[in-house]
Amino acid sequence: MHCTQAAEASHKINMHLSSLRVRHSDINGTQNAMLQYLCKRVLFQELKHSLFPPVAAKENNRRVVFSHVLEIEYTRTQANIMRFLHKDVRIVEFELGHMIANEFRLQRDQLQDQLRPLTFFFSQKYVREDGRTLWATPNRRDIFRIKGQEGGTTLCAEAICFIQVSNLRAIDRAGVISPNNRDLVLIRWLSPHPDSVERDETHRPVCPGPLRINNCLWQYSRADEPRRCMGRQFFRRQRQLFGDREEDQNNVRAHELHAWYGLVKPVNVEETMNMCPVFKPGSSEWDGQVWLQTVTMC
Fold first, then answer.
1. pLDDT value of residue 298
2. Residues 180-236 pLDDT 10s
3. Which residues does residue 276 pair with via DSSP β-bridges, in sequence order?
4. Backbone phi, then psi, for 24, in 5-degree steps?
5. Which of 11, 51, 218, 242 would be a feasible disulfide site paired with 291, CB 3.0-4.6 Å?
């Protein structure tokens, strides 16, 4: 079913749009009217493209907008170092602190003291200056293509939340951080699936078999070591953040035990990928780790 996207898109233009634009009569009369409409539409589109070439868009004065605020208290204290931030952001303060340290090149030996002057704001929706909206809600977690490549494959990641870090000059001893606020995207990395050995012209992992014509295959990146916060002791204390039933909680823990998180700048998000989860072989259950990307054909 993933190979029908281009055909369905063409059908919407050729059939649905034209049927809305013509007067309906008998079958032959309606069909002829629709064909004439499509011919004229194609003709004028080509004339518009030839006579009026696209002009670079004018710079706008849009500003960055955070919304769908997450009520998260990032305490940065030793007592809460293994406290998960939120049910929708299942990383602990210790993990976020180390990612912030990598982003701003902070010293690890006194990390809590260095983070204390900073202010953190968390949200699930982010509107960039160019007007593009990025989402990270439980019902819609965008999966992005990130600028750059790794091992000959384009970078891919799932949005977890958006973070604004403020008062950066308080930790900028070298005077190299500018501006005083920094917007970041907390992401979970994806990697090419082992079955995808080919790459297309944009360095995406092409799906093997019959689906290769219009699909790519990804899986969540896996850290070499299990996350310390997922140990039995810490997990039991906060297992209510992983689901309502014990079975669901254990499944989520298993899926996130080796999760690999990171931080990127919103400007490095190139596009949103069209992804859907994959079923386990021979069952109707989601795999939970593998994603199929549908590539739109022109």
1. 44
2. 899 999 999 999 999 999 999 889 999 988 888 889 999 999 999 999 999 989 999
3. 292
4. -90, 135
5. 218
**AA identity, residue 98:** H
What b/e readout covers 204-214, taking b as 16+ CB neighbours within 10 angstroms? bbbbeeeeeeb
Contact 278, 288 (CB under 8 A): no
Structure tokens at 33: 């009217």
- Averaged pLDDT for residues 242-247: 94
List the alpha helices (DSSP H) in 82-222: 93-104, 111-115
Place of tokens 């590539």: 295
Q: Where are the domains of the chain?
A: 2-51, 65-294
138-to-103, 244, 279 alpha-carbon distances in Å = 26, 15, 20
Alpha-carbon span 125 to 136, nearest angstrom:
6
DSSP class per residue in 167-204: -GGGG-SSS---SS-EEEEEEEEEEE-TT---B-TT--
pTM, full prediction:
0.77
Q: Tokens in use for 114?
A: 């260095």
Q: Which of 171, 155, 178 is nearest to 101 (CA)?
A: 171
Residue that has been written with the tokens 């919304």 in this structure: 67
**More confident of the two residues 57 and 146:** 146
Residues in contact with 242: Cβ distance below 8 Å, sequence separation at least 6, in sequence order: 87, 90, 235, 248, 249, 252, 253
Place of tokens 């953190």: 120
